[in-house]
Amino acid sequence: MIRLSDLIKLTQKISKKPEPPKTPVEDKKIEEKKEEPAEKQEEKKTEQSYLKLAQAIKEMDRKESKKEEPTYQVQISKAINKMKEDKEESSQIYEEAYNLIKDIFVKVKNDEPFDCQQVVPVIRKMVDQVCLGGHELAVITNRCSPENYLWCHSVNACILSLLIGATLGYNKSKLQELGIASYLYDLGMVKVLDLVETPKPLCETEFDEVKKHTCYSSDILKGPKDDILQLAVKIAHQAHERVDGSGYPDGIKGEDTHEYTQIIALADMYEAMTHPRPYRDKYFPHDAIREILRNSEQFSPLVIKALIKRVSLYPIGTWVKLNTDEIGKVAEVHEDYLLRPVVNVVFDINGRRLDEIKTIDLAKQQSIHIKESVDLSKLAFKLDTGK
User: Fold this and answer.
1) pLDDT band at 387; cut points 50, 70, 90
2) Of 27, 31, 48, 210, which has the maximum CB count within 10 A?
3) Taking residues 367-387, what's their average pLDDT?
4) Is the peptide bond before 249 cis (omega within 30 degrees of 0)?
5) Is the whole-model pTM more than 0.85?
6) Comparing 58-62, 287-291, 323-327, 366-370, which segment has the lowest mean pLDDT?
7) Average pLDDT over all residues of the chain
8) Considering only CA atoms, which of 117, 134, 197, 184 is closest in space to residue 154?
9) Contact present, 8 and 54 (Cβ < 8 Å)
10) 164: left (phi over 0), alpha (psi -120 to 50) or beta
């Protein structure tokens, strides 16, 4: 269970930018000068955002603490915990999902029909893996390149949505619905592909054109007239709406947005930020979470908490530099200690690969902490990667 106090302190810490020290003259001027109304409004907005998030987290923790699982559920849970996800099987499922969505995108681009029923078994396999923990699938979502990001984005957003749904307590039936919707919600992007592949930020007119992809997506899914797509049509249309009404295309808010929409909207944003785009580098996961928390009024607080709980600030597979200047990969995360995962140290302070990997549980080693996330590809020339 994520500690409420830790998360709130974290949001406050990462949302405030450090200010340079002020001279006595500057301090005097600040005292004499009244605060700008805009600044007050921004502070009030931030406080309200934290309060709303805190209340939702507290309520979710309260409900979780009151749950009493029947004996048979406990037995099932123990049986599942004894089972392990198969890394190779997870990789095969990902490849199958990737190849199918790629084929669907190509058919949509060429105005050819596609078989919706092919989606069902693929989603069922992903749901089964998520119910076993979904850790291996979560690690695989790091796969992406500027050339294939559109197809990977659909698969990755689907996996993230399923992980969030499972954290919120969805059963297999609801996860199946969520999975289908989150797998197909972005098909309309093929209609604006030239714009989204532009290697520069879009102007307002271009972005307005890209926004139309949600309507294109829902229209595409209306075509097959398949029962499994009834809900997916609605979700595709709403996928970029926000609970505060700041989204598009209709600017709906609150309970008018479907619960699956609220999940997919956040999964979409997080996935997009943590992967490269033609016009920018990827965000590190903790930077993406920081941006989400800065804009927390746009999303369901419960969904934000579920995302943080499942992906953590330093997800498994993330490369990090410790305050010892050693570099390692996150091997395990602690739900109660978001900033202190288990790290497998691979390179020493001089960038030399260790003969044997050194495992450090930061939750037990208080003197050691993560200094920063690192992009290993950009550090490769400094590291001994020969082994």
Assistant:
1) very low
2) 210
3) 76
4) yes
5) no
6) 58-62
7) 82
8) 184
9) yes
10) alpha
What stretch of H or E contains 322?
strand 319-322
pLDDT tens column, 289-310: 999 999 999 999 999 999 998 8
* pLDDT at 58 (0 to 100): 54
Q: Are 160 and 264 in contact (CB under 8 A)?
A: no
Using an 8 Å Cβ cutoff, are 211 and 248 in contact? Answer: yes
Q: How many C-beta atoms surround the C-beta of residue 186 within 10 A?
A: 25
Domains assigned to the chain: 71-311 (1.10.3210.10), 319-382 (no CATH)
Compute, in degrees rounded to 10, the torsion defined by CA atoms 97, 149, 237, 234. Answer: 10
Supply 197's token pair.
């592949």
Closest CA to 185 of 279, 263, 99: 263
Residues 6+ apart with CB under 8 A from 203: none
CA 274 to chain centre: 8
Q: What is the mean pLDDT of residues 148-161?
A: 93
Contact 284, 374 (CB under 8 A): no
How many other CB atoms sit within 10 Å of the CB of residue 99?
13
Residue keyed to tokens 């709906």: 252
Q: Provide the 8-state DSSP code for 280.
A: B
